[in-house]
Amino acid sequence: MQTTSLPAPLSGIVPPMVTPLTADGELDVVGLQRLVEHILQGGVHGLFVLGTTGEGPLLSGRLQRDLIDRVCDLVAGRAPVLVGVTDTSLAESILLARHAHAAGASAAVYAPPCYFPVSQVDLLRCIEQLAIQSPLPVVMYNMPALTKASFQADTVRRMASDPRVIGFKDSSGDLEQFEAMRDASASRPDWAMMTGPELLLKQSLEMGGTGGVCGGANLFPRLFVDLYKAVVEGNHEQAEELQLVVERLDALYRLSADGGTGCIQGLKAGLEEISICGRTMAAPHAALPTSRQAEVQAVISDVSEAMAAGV
C-alpha cells in the first residue's frame, strides 16, 4: 500500500475515471492498466474512481473493491486516488471508505444517498458520521440531477468547519450555485472547490475554483491539464482557445439519446477508438452502437488535430 498525500487545497485536474469492463461485465484488467497509464501520462493531479463517469453505483461491491485495489496498485503513489463511496446505506459508504484507505486511497467522495428524500439536516448527519468514521478525508459531491438532493450553502458552511471534510465537487452545472458554495467555504483556505461539467471549467477556475473533475480527461488528459495551467498562470487567450477545444467534445456526448449515460457511452466509445479499453457499459445500460463509430472517430480526430496544431 502506498498512499499519496493530498495538496491543500486539492487542486488541478482529477479525471473521473471510466471503469473498463469485459463483455460479461467483469473488470477489464488490461484495459484498466492502459487507461491508468494514459491518464497519468497526461500530467493529471489525481484520479477519481467509482464516480458517476465510473458507473460506481451500478457496480457490485466485489467489483468496486477490486477496482479500488487494482487502481491503487497501478497508480503506486504517483498521484492521489479519490474514491466515490456513495451508497443508499451510510454503513456501506463507511465500509467502502475504510477499504479504500486500506488499499492506499487518499480521500473519500460522498454524494447524497438516492431513493428516499433527504433534508439538509439528513445530509449534515450523513457527512458528519462519515467524517467521524472514515479514516479518509471527505469531499462532498453535489450531483442533484441523479441524487434528487442538492447541498445548500448553509450545509457547506457548517461542514467547512470540520477539518475532516476537505472540499466540494459541484456537478450541478449552475455557476450561481458554485459561487454560493465557494463563498460559504471562504473561511477555509485549504478547501477544494472542484467542478464537474467541463463546459464550465474555465469559468469556474476564474471564479476561484481549484480544479476540475472532468470526464473528457479520460480521453485527452493533457488538454485539460493545459487548460488548467493556462488559467492559473493567467494566459487568458490560451485558456479561451483551449476551452473551445474542450467544448468540441460535447459532440461525442450527444451521439446517444440516453440522457442518463450518454456521456459515458461516448467516452467509452472514444477510448475504444484510441485502443485503450472497450465500450461495454455496466448493466443494464447498452454501449454506444458501433454504427456510430465513424462519428466518434470524427470527434476524436477533430480534437486531436486541434491539439497538434498547438491551439
Distinctive features:
311 residues; alpha/beta; eight-stranded parallel beta sheet; 8 strands; 10% strand
Describe the structure concisely.
Helices cover about 45% and strands about 10% of the residues. With about 300 residues, it is an alpha/beta fold.
Map the helices and strands.
Blueprint: E1 12-13, H1 29-41, E2 47-49, H2 61-75, E3 81-84, H3 90-103, E4 107-110, H4 120-133, E5 138-142, H5 144-147, H6 153-159, E6 165-170, H7 175-184, E7 192-195, H8 201-206, E8 211-212, H9 221-232, H10 236-248, H11 250-253, H12 262-273, H13 293-308
Parallel strand pairs: 1-8, 2-3, 3-4, 4-5, 5-6, 6-7, 7-8
Helix pairs in contact: 1-2, 2-3, 6-7, 9-10, 12-13
Describe the structure.
The longest helix is centred in the C-terminal third of the chain and has 16 residues, at 293-308. The chain is of the alpha/beta class. Helix 6 (153-159) packs parallel to helix 7, helix 9 (221-232) packs antiparallel against helix 10 and helix 12 packs across helix 13. The model has no long low-confidence stretch (mean pLDDT 95). It is built from 13 helices and eight strands. Helix content is 45%, strand content 10%. The termini are far apart. It has helices spanning 29-41, 61-75, 90-103, 120-133, 144-147, 153-159, 175-184, 201-206, 221-232, 236-248, 250-253, 262-273, 293-308; strands spanning 12-13, 47-49, 81-84, 107-110, 138-142, 165-170, 192-195, 211-212. Strand 6, helix 7 (175-184) and strand 7 (192-195) form a beta-alpha-beta unit. An eight-stranded parallel sheet has the order 1-8-7-6-5-4-3-2.
